[in-house]
Design brief:
Chain lengths: 808, 119
């Protein structure tokens, strides 16, 4: 009996130990996680940081001082460049190690190792799009350049110096929650991180949808609804700018065929909102007589933020700005002489090629009138719990075959797959560009720095102390015939391959234009006279139109007036459409008091998406419903996936083509007019707002309807920001949406003494247990900026709260 | 006695060891000196409950509860205080169970050797 009791208790104790020591479902291992000695308690930080610290770090060449300011921005004073990048790696890891680990795992298709099978499809997709291959190519490019090699090696060594100093109790809290350990940082991870940016900003593609539309409706409908240039546009390089170079001969357009496309996996869609604004104003329009530059990149907003502020000071540079945790250098910022910023270009650098295989073995494919060998790359995905999945990826000379059609057994036709040709697979060295920009002194340095840049293509805005301003939609652009890659291409015809590159010096650029400013908001890079084809569709023009209108009107411009412009909630879309849409509504059909009141509010609206505007909530949903009622019957459920025509084209129809045949809803017997659609969609808008927000009142205000919240990167409950009540919209300069928007706002005033301001929605620390996890959110949400602490020498002042001395 | 021993030894050892030392030490000590089942459990439970409660309270106040409330929301417990209580209970329960196991193992072992002597 006693033995039985003893055994029973041994079993029970063993079971309790097992449960408390291992992850169960989403629960962390409760024993180690809740122990105040090793668990989450150890991640809670005091508000007071230790004033002065001294550390010895093996790997440094000389002494380094890190001065932390009141927002926990590190200002690194190093005696040589190697030490500066080593320390950049060290401090970034100290604040953002888990984010760096997770983002690079995501890029490499290694999330399953941490979370198990539910991430398998995601991991497969990442690997099948050749992310690893791209990162390997990128690394080759970096290693071929002695400077980039030094930088990336120093940065990696610094990260590893931090990782080596960690005991399990010190692991960032997410490692404890997800129950895994930090691993060594590698050079490849730096490359993976940069590839992930390319994937985010230049990894979307509508070619499949366009191909399906072409097959369903034919070329004339495509020409009509999916035009190569918007009917209203305000391009980045001002329209009418003369091109001063002799262009290369563009390859001729081949006659190609389109094979059948069916697949269950969808490629990444292009999402509006992953855009940005930047501009620079010349001295003759500013109060100080020197240029002012502003930039706000819009990305998915997360905690920790995608950006990390840093200042690097060595004998060769003194640069301040935001960096990407996981990559060295400052990406957007300024130094004593120049400032620069970026927005996304959205050139077409991702194409799909139909592959004709010899047989089901898929070992050879037809190209250039002969059979060519398919190469294979074996990818092994480890899954938490010990299982592995082996995935074979087929490569053609175009690139990886991401989608392999399931062969239908009752058909013996040649199986068809599609290969992906993507700029991210090419050897490149983007770090070289930032190395040079960080040290740039003038316009020539800027032009020189841009030459080396490949992807993701960015509109690099620039201003310097010699009163120059400039902007360059810059990247490595394939030399294409017009519309090449608008649809899926025939992969057997060499004429469809990329035929070379647009020479870097012939990329569109403008310096000191007459209007006194340069700007970009992801709209078309140029007017149609540019001799090369970059893409057929860019972001809608409304943000750009508003920025250019305001900048044209403004004089004696100050930092504050540009800050206001960054926070401008005006909607050119509403300005274009609202009165027409209201005039279309049959007011006789508005019966409910909400409908009548809503109509009245809309009538009085000033087209600003301010947080308190009820009209903004109504207009936003109403336009979406109207857009849907015009296109959904024509472009959904047609047996293949499609997309809707652009906002530009829809606007044109609402304003000038009200009798268009696309207006009628095909799924009803009667013939609808645009007035019918406007009325029905208005009523249903009011109805769904009533259902969601209750009776018309305060809860209908745009700030509540939009409900901005900045979520933790792994969406861990409790780690998200509070709900913010804020204005702005996709189509406003302040492009703040539910969960994406201005991820960093910066305004830099050049001059004898550069003055800069900036803020991002988050904090420097990635630790939810730190006071610096989300301390800048309110400033950002209120539309304010922090003055950036730009130090010239390492003497602490009142804004510096702690100093860390690093020794060899 | 057991209470004091566990409290002192575990409080110090945990700074250098994994969390499960709060199971190992009570188990071994109970093998050595334990008298009644209920009391053994309570003393071990109480020692680690107190140790974890005091330490987590200390951290909670020192850091003004910055993380406690967030983790409380994550684990879907109602408040920071509940989370501190849950923390102490997890520690106490692990220690209590391990000590109880030690007690019964000792009993089984002793009765075995007693039977062996009688034979």
């Amino acid at each position: 009996m006693k033995i039985f009791k003893a055994i029973t208790l041994l079993v029970v104790s063993g079971a309790v130990f097992f449960v408390f020591n291992n992850k169960t479902g989403p629960l962390p291992p409760l024993g180690s996680f809740s122990s105040p000695y090793t668990g989450f308690w150890q991640n809670a930080e005091n508000r007071q940081i230790e004033k002065d610290l001294s550390l010895s770090l093996p790997g440094l060449k000389d002494e380094v001082s890190i001065l932390y300011d009141e927002n926990r921005v590190p200002h690194i004073f190093a005696k040589n460049d190697y030490d500066a990048y080593f320390t950049q790696g060290y401090v970034t890891a100290k604040d953002r190690l888990w984010q760096m680990d997770f983002q690079t795992r995501f890029a490499a298709g290694r999330i399953s190792e941490v979370v198990g099978e539910r991430a398998l499809e995601l991991d497969r997709y990442k690997r099948r799009t050749g992310m690893l291959l791209g990162a390997e190519q990128s690394l080759k490019g970096m290693m071929a350049n002695p400077k980039s090699k030094m930088v990336v090696e120093a940065y990696t060594a610094g990260i590893n110096a931090y990782i080596a100093s960690l005991k399990p109790k010190d692991f960032p809290i997410e490692f404890k929650i997800l129950d895994y350990k930090p691993e060594q940082w590698t050079l490849l991870k730096c490359a993976l991180l940069l590839k992930q940016m390319t994937s985010t900003l230049a990894g979307g593609s509508d070619d499949f949808y366009m191909t399906n539309i072409l097959k369903t409706y034919g070329p004339s409908v495509v020409k009509d609804l999916f035009r190569d240039y918007p009917f209203r546009e305000d391009p980045i390089i001002p329209a009418g700018t003369k091109w001063t170079f002799t262009p290369l001969k563009v390859p001729p357009t081949p006659s190609s065929f389109i094979a059948m496309m069916t697949d269950s996996i969808r490629p990444q869609e292009k999402i509006e909102g992953i855009g940005s604004n930047n501009w620079a104003v010349a001295g003759n329009k500013t109060a100080t007589g020197m240029p002012i530059l502003a930039n706000d990149p819009h990305l998915d907003l997360t905690l920790p933020s995608i950006w990390y502020q840093i200042q690097l000071i060595t004998p060769t540079m003194n640069v301040y700005g935001v960096s990407l945790p996981g990559a060295p250098h400052v990406i957007i910022g300024f130094n004593k002489n120049v400032s620069w910023g970026v927005t996304n270009v959205d050139a077409d650098v991702l194409d799909w090629y139909q592959i004709k295989f010899k047989d089901n073995k898929k070992e050879e494919y037809w190209w250039n009138n002969k059979w060519n060998k398919v190469t294979k790359r074996i990818e092994t995905i480890s899954i938490r719990g010990g299982k592995t999945l082996v995935d074979t990826i087929l490569f053609t000379h175009h690139g990886p075959i991401v989608y392999i059609d399931e062969q239908k057994p009752f058909k013996d036709n040649v199986p068809v797959g599609t290969a992906m040709r993507w700029i991210a697979h090419d050897q490149s060295d983007e770090l070289a560009t930032f190395y040079k920009l960080n040290r740039a002194k003038n316009y020539e340095d800027y032009r020189e720095a841009l030459k080396a840049y490949t992807a993701p293509a960015q509109n690099f805005v620039f201003a310097d102390n010699h009163n120059n301003i400039a902007i360059t939609p810059n990247g490595k652009y394939p030399l294409k015939w017009k519309e090449q890659g608008k649809f899926v291409l025939d992969g057997s015809d060499p004429n469809n391959d990329w035929q070379g590159w647009i020479p870097a010096e012939q990329n569109p650029t403008i310096k000191n234009p007459e209007r006194g400013f340069v700007s970009s908001a992801n709209q078309s890079s140029t007017d149609p006279t540019y001799p090369y084809y970059l893409n057929w569709e860019f972001a809608p023009y409304e943000r750009a139109a508003r920025i250019n209108r305001r900048l044209t009107q403004m004089n004696h411009i100050t930092v504050d007036s540009l800050r206001n412009l960054q926070n401008d909630n005006f909607s050119v879309q509403a300005e274009n459409l609202r009165t027409t849409m209201l005039s279309l509504v049959d007011q006789g059909q508005l019966k409910k008091k909400e409908e009548i009141e809503g109509f009245r509010i809309m009538n009085q609206w000033n087209n600003f998406y301010n947080a308190k505007e009820i009209a903004a909530s109504i207009f936003d949903l109403w336009y979406n419903q109207l857009n849907n009622s015009i296109w959904a019957d024509d472009f959904t459920d047609k047996g293949s996936i499609m997309r809707f025509p652009s906002r530009d084209r829809t606007t044109q129809i609402i304003l000038f083509e009200q009798n268009s045949k696309w207006v009628d809803n095909l799924s009803t017997p009667q013939k609808e007019t645009l007035a019918d659609l406007a009325t029905i969609s208005f009523i249903s808008t009011i109805d769904s707002l009533t259902k969601k927000q209750g009776p018309l009142g305060e809860k209908w205000q745009w700030g509540y309807v939009k409900d901005t919240q900045i979520a933790h990167l792994a969406k861990i409950p409790g780690f998200n920001s509070k709900h913010l009540f804020s204005g702005g919209s996709k189509g406003s300069v302040n492009a703040l949406n539910h969960n994406n928007g201005p991820s960093w706002r910066m305004v830099v005033q050049l001059g004898q003494k550069v003055k800069a301001f900036g803020v991002y929605p988050g904090g420097q620390s990635g630790n939810p247990g730190s006071w610096y996890y989300d301390n800048m959110i309110d400033t950002w949400s209120d539309g304010k900026l922090n003055e950036l602490v730009y130090l010239l020498n390492p003497t602490p002042d009142k804004r510096i709260i702690s100093t860390v001395k690093l020794k060899k | 006695m057991l209470f004091i021993l566990i409290l002192i030894i575990c409080t110090i050892l945990q700074f250098f060891t994994p969390w499960w030392v709060v199971m190992l030490v009570p188990f071994l000590l109970a093998l050595w000196k334990s008298e009644k089942a209920g009391r053994t459990f309570l003393e071990a439970f109480g020692a680690i409950f107190l140790c974890w409660l005091v330490y987590s309270f200390f951290i909670h106040f020192k850091t003004a509860g910055i993380l406690t409330s967030k983790v409380a929301e994550m684990l879907m417990v109602k408040s920071s205080m509940v989370l501190i209580a849950v923390t102490a209970i997890i520690g106490g329960l692990s220690a209590g169970l391990a000590a109880l196991t030690g007690y019964f193992c000792k009993k089984a072992f002793l009765s075995n050797s007693a039977e062996a002597k009688q034979a």
